[in-house]
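Researcher: Quick one. two chains, 193 residues in total.
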Amino acid sequence: MQIVGLGLIAAILSLLIKEHKPIFAFLLSLFAGALIFLFLIGKIADVIRVLQNLAEHSGINSVYLKTVLKIVGIAYIAEFGAQIVRDTGQEAVAAKIELAGKILILFMAIPIFRIIIETVMKLLPA
Amino acid sequence: MNLDVNAIFQIAGIGIIIAMIHTILKQMGKEEIAQWATVIGFIVVLFMVIRLLDDLFREIKAIFLFQ
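Model:
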């Protein structure tokens, strides 16, 4: 409820300012986006804590969970940045940010890929 | 949460007031001062936004990247 209200207020105010000063409208939408994200991040932290507990109980190697969490974090940041930049109309820069996010995620995932491939090779009859 | 919503209204208010000041100064023929008013308002709002973004990125870092 709060978040919907916040978004509505931000949208209306930014429409109001856009006629005179588009740069302020942009900053306003940026602020609202960051605010909503900040509001959600507490809940995300709870979810992640539960996931961590589960992983500890089941004895999964903590490297896997850390890598996955890092990937999710990179995805969040990249998406946020790309959407903000897209708001300003710089489609090309937004695309580059997304590309950077994807490549970094791929880079993070390489150790996991290697482990998977090694496991498969072990399973296959030589 | 309440304080943060106030910040949104603050930014919108600053924007509207700066637009008014800009218009008035332009009518008075002081083009340069109008530009400076706009720049200063912009910097103030930019500081607010950047502080919040700093908070946000710090939180994301603390939660996702370094356990």
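DSSP finds two helices and no strands in chain B.
Researcher: Thanks, that's what I needed.
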